[in-house]
Design a protein that fits this description.
binds thymidine-5'-diphosphate; globular; single chain; five-stranded antiparallel beta sheet; Jelly Rolls; 11% helix; 147 residues; mainly beta
Amino acid sequence: METERTIAAAGYATIAGCRLIPLRTVDDPRGSITIVEGEQDVPFPIERVYHLHGVPAGGSRGGHGHRRLEQLLVAVAGEFDVLLDDGAERRIVRLDDPGTGLYIPPGIWRELEAFAAGSVCLVLASMLYDAADYERDYADFLAWRSG
Ligand code: TYD
């Protein structure tokens, strides 16, 4: 799996470094538990957790790239699209399974779109919040990628 550490040697991540990860899930008649442990189930230490909720039906979030941050996104309820863009290629992944995470390595532009009503996006992140890690303008993101 492509991680910040291998990318540091090989250059920025590409779309191919974005991967769906089946998460360990324990099912029983009472319901299910899905487990994510840092550096075990994801290739990074988990430094921050947040969730997106209350997004209106059809709504969007994101629309930025991160220079160093690694993330795992999970649709713990509902479903939404994740547009991934490495500056050369785009791909859209629909997340709709609380037992599957989408790993996004550093250097990828992402947009979360087409939320179904009541959806919740859980985000596990490799770093504390750092506004300087964001590329919020797409032209700046492309310039940074090619620079
Ligand atoms: P932002 O990452 O821009 O969300 P989105 O791209 O989905 O619209 O964050 C929105 C606001 O929340 C922004 O003012 C920064 C703040 N924020 C934090 O303070 N800490 C965090 O960990 C995150 C993710 C956001």
